[in-house]
Amino acid sequence: MNGFIRNTSAAVAELPEPPNHDQKPRRCVNHLGMWSVSSAKHGCGMQAMLDNTPTTYWQSEGQQPHHISVQFEKRMAIQEVWLYLNYKSDESYTPSKITLAVGTNVLDLEECSILSVTQPDGWVCFPLPAGTDLVYGNLFRMFITANHDNGRDSHVRQVKLMAPPSAFLPPVLQFQNVDWAQHASLR
């Protein structure tokens, strides 16, 4: 069952934000993308991994690799991709190896990062390529290639894509003066 959804729900404060170790300014851009998954078990659709609640999850169904995709209308600069995983609750459903691929569409996706985790409990972040602060693309796809204990289906509790605050403003419009900056975009 392939599905698409545009996330329009307001954030619920039940789930802590992913850690910000380097203290860079950032914002979640989940609501700006069109989300899709390779498959979903009835009652455990992709809406559950975008609802900001750690007790719900998306569950894949079928053969691996499973994937989660988010496509943006415009090219996006992403600085962090976070997944909320819980081995204690999900056991063999917990992904252990996930590959992040980035491109402008499905025809030019390139592997960008591989995340390998052992019994995760909470937020985990994809490492960006060495010397890179941002990854640019229209399509971001996470391939789940292995689960703990050789599990077949996967549980992902939450996903967050973080971008710099100025991800949509061209450098010309990054004003230093508050009076000018307040008129830089339409509400």
UniProtKB/TrEMBL annotation:
UniProt cross-references to Pfam families, sorted A to Z: ANAPC10 (PF03256)
One of the GO BP terms on file: cell division
Renumbered residue ranges of the record's region Disordered: 1-25
Compositional bias segments (type: Polar residues): 1-10
PROSITE patterns, A to Z: DOC (PS51284)
Spans traversing the lipid bilayer: none
Matches recorded under SUPFAM superfamilies: Galactose-binding domain-like
Family annotation (CDD domains): APC10 (cd08366)
Transmembrane helix keyword on record: no
Keywords linked to the UniProt accession: Cell cycle, Cell division, Mitosis, Ubl conjugation pathway
Domain DOC, first and last residues per copy: 5-187
Lineage: superkingdom: Eukaryota
InterPro entries noted in UniProt: APC10/Doc1, APC_su10/DOC_dom, Galactose-bd-like_sf
CC annotations in GO: anaphase-promoting complex
Cell division in keyword set: yes
PANTHER family linked: ANAPHASE-PROMOTING COMPLEX 10 (PTHR12936), ANAPHASE-PROMOTING COMPLEX SUBUNIT 10 (PTHR12936:SF0)
Family: Belongs to the APC10 family.
Biological role stated in the UniProt entry: Component of the anaphase promoting complex/cyclosome (APC/C), a cell cycle-regulated E3 ubiquitin-protein ligase complex that controls progression through mitosis and the G1 phase of the cell cycle.
Name of the protein described by the UniProt record: Anaphase-promoting complex subunit 10
Lineage of the organism: Eukaryota, Filasterea, Capsaspora
